[in-house]
Structure formats: C-alpha cells, structure tokens
Amino acid sequence: MGRLKKGRCVKRNKQINKNEKEELVQAPHSFVVHRGLPGNNITELTKDFRRVMEPFTASMLKERKRNTIKDFVSIAGILHVTHISIFSQTELGFYLKICRIPRGPTLSFKIESFALARDVVSTTKKQLVFEEAFKHPPLIIMNKFSGEGMHFKLMTSMFQNMFPTINLVKVNLSNMRRCVCLNYNHDTKLIDFRHYAIKVIPVGLSKSVKKLVQAKIPNLSHCQDFADFMIKPTLSESEAEDDPASHVTLPQKLSSRGNHEKSTSAIRLYELGPRLTLQLIKVEDGLLGGEVLFHELINKTEEEKILIQKKREQNKKLKEKRRKIQDENKLKKEAKKQELKEKSLKGIHKKRESDILMQKIAKESYEANKSDDDDDAQYYRDEVGEEPDSDLFKRTIKNKRSYSHFEKYKNKKIKVNPENTKET
C-alpha cells in the first residue's frame, strides 16, 4: 500500500501543542455559527460576521446540522475560544446570541434590520477593501453605553471582552486598519453595529504632490512643464473633505507614505459591512440556559421568581439523582460482565484439563495393547522357533482411542484468549 497523504485541513492546521505567544493565547477567540431555519441571508450574515472577528476566529469552520453546541464547547478550551456567536432564524425573525464559554452568561439580541457586506460595499461611492486589513483585530468604539442596570453593564463588558485589549505602550498604529463602532440609542433601546476600514491621509498636500509622495507616476501629457503640474490648482482628498475634528497629530511614523511622526493627518473611514441593528431581549446566567437575569418583554413578580428558582433546584436534584442511579447501574453492569468473563475462563481451563486426561488415557491404552502383543509374539517364537506372521497377533480395539489419536493431540497447545470467549 502507498503512503497516506496529509489532507488539506491537516496541512493548514497549526500544531496545537506548539509553544504559542502569550499575546495570542490571552487574546479572545470566537466561534461564529448559525442555527435554525436554513436560508441564504443567515449564511451570508454569518460569514460576514466572521470577517469582522478575524483573525481570532474560525474563518473556515465547517458546521453541520448534527453538530450541537456541546461539540463546540468541548473543543473551545484547546483552541483558546472564549466567546461563541450564534445567528438563528425563526418564523418571527432573526436573532443573535453571544455566549461566554464555558459557563456563560448568554445575551440574546433580536436583529431588527441588517445589511450584508456585499450590499454595503456596492452602495458606497469610495470603496476600500483589502486583505491586509483583516490580518489584525479591529478597534472597538462604543458610544453612549453608560446607563443604570446590571444588564446594561453586563452587555457593555461582553462587547468589550470580545475584542483584544490595546497596550498603549507597545501598540503599532500601522496595524490599526479597522474599527467596530457600536452606538446605543436610549430612546429606542437599539444598538447600531457598524464596521469600517481606517485610512490615514496627510493634511496640507495638494493632489499632485500627494502622488509624488506616494511614489505614483503622474500624467504630464497636459502639461508643458513640470512646474505646471505642481502649480495646478487641485485639492487633496483631505482638503476636499476638510473637517478639523478628523485631524490628528501622529505620535509615530505609519507604514503609509506621507504620514510621518508628529505630522498632521486626517482620519477617513470606509464602511466594510455588515450593518446590524440589535435590541437586547434577554440575559441568562448560564450557557444558553440558567436563571434569567433580565427580560425586555416579560416582567415577573418576586413570587414567580421564587417558584421558578424552586423548580430549577428540584430539576437539578432530580438530575443528580438520575446521574447517581446511572453510575450505580454502570458499576453493576461492569461487575456482572467481569463475573461472566471469569466463568468463561474457568470453563476453558476445565476443557483443557479434560483434553490432557484423554491424552493420558490414550497413551496408557496404547502401551498396554502393545505390551500384550509383544508377550504373545515372544511366546510363539519360544515354542515354534519361527517368526509369527504380521497379522497373527494384531488386535482390533473397538471403542478405544489408538496411538495415532494420541500422536495427533500430543503436541497440541490449547490457547486461552479471554477476549474471544462467548459470554453465557
């Protein structure tokens, strides 16, 4: 047989036990999956959200209908996964659940409206989509997330912990290529989710000078002299959309041309998508279950909460009791299995002893018959003085084992294999 080839997934997968950097291990990782009714929109929305969470997410995750949430939770610890986002589609609409692995809490959002990334990019006048931006995690910008209530603080911390924190001492501004903006409206209680690409443009340069700074070849076909190209009254991109609020002084040099340290540059945002409008519906204490800490649509009295808590404790005790019974039945089954195994081994040993006894009897019978034949033949020689015929003293022994039977079983070894024995 030929040598087995490694599959595509094995080649792409990195060694899990290999020493990884501490920054990568401590960074929050995520799974993004979808459940519920099938549909093209829910599938595309899941893929777009994975692009937002890159690079610390399973971009090529192959999920199947038979996979359960327990399957993802079981491998989350090995892959350093801390959050799981679940998109679901029902007859009433679309929903998003964000869970903290492995013990919760769980936040359930209703998706009031959404737009896919391809639709957002196709409607924008200036597009800026490049793969280099997805090699680093995005910044998280939250607006108006200040309010009273435990659920509000829990929602804020959940969004913050989904993305890696920034070390202001070691941060490299050239890696800040994307940002996620979340805006909370206190009147409507809706959250606007937006995803942008960041571009830094030097301020104070004309369009012609900007081309030279960025090492682009200018078009001089309409100019008689190079000075005409330089003096041509054209505004730069930053000057055409000049907004003093977008001007910043760079603390370090960027990889893009024209952006030097302590120079003034303008920040431009280009939307990448998807767009989401979310409403917090429910907050649960556990992973997709447990005590309901907050519900937007249902309000329960203290008595109802106490009854629910008692019922939950009863179910927990019943579950523990069933588990205990299952463990006891499992031990009994294993003990019975071991007992049957020992009985089968004893039967094999008894069979072996009986075969040895039969071999011994056959040998003794053959030797006794042989000695009788030898005595008769010797008596004939002494009296007659001639050798007897070969068939004269040959005996036919019926219902007795011959020596050929003994020779057949003399060197036979009885093998005892407990695994192949049948249980009775």
Topology, please?
Blueprint: H1 8-12, H2 22-26, E1 29-36, H3 40-53, H4 69-76, E2 81-89, E3 94-100, E4 106-115, H5 117-123, E5 139-143, H6 150-161, E6 178-185, E7 190-202, H7 207-213, H8 226-231, H9 237-240, E8 247-249, E9 264-271, E10 275-284, E11 292-295, H10 302-384, H11 403-410
Parallel strand pairs: 1-2, 5-6
Antiparallel strand pairs: 2-3, 3-4, 4-10, 6-7, 7-9, 7-10, 8-9, 10-11
Helix pairs in contact: 10-11
Outline, from the CA principal axes?
A: elongated
Cα gyration radius (Å): 42 Å
CATH architecture field of the largest domain? 3-Layer(aba) Sandwich
Mean pLDDT over all positions: 80
Q: Percentage of helical residues? A: 25-40%
End-to-end separation: 41 Å
Name of the CATH class of the largest domain: Alpha Beta
Q: Tell me which oligomeric state these chains represent.
A: single chain
- Structural category is alpha+beta
Biased composition (Basic and acidic residues): 325-345
GO cellular component, one term: preribosome, large subunit precursor
Domain Brix: 28-289
Region (Disordered): 237-260, 317-347, 365-387
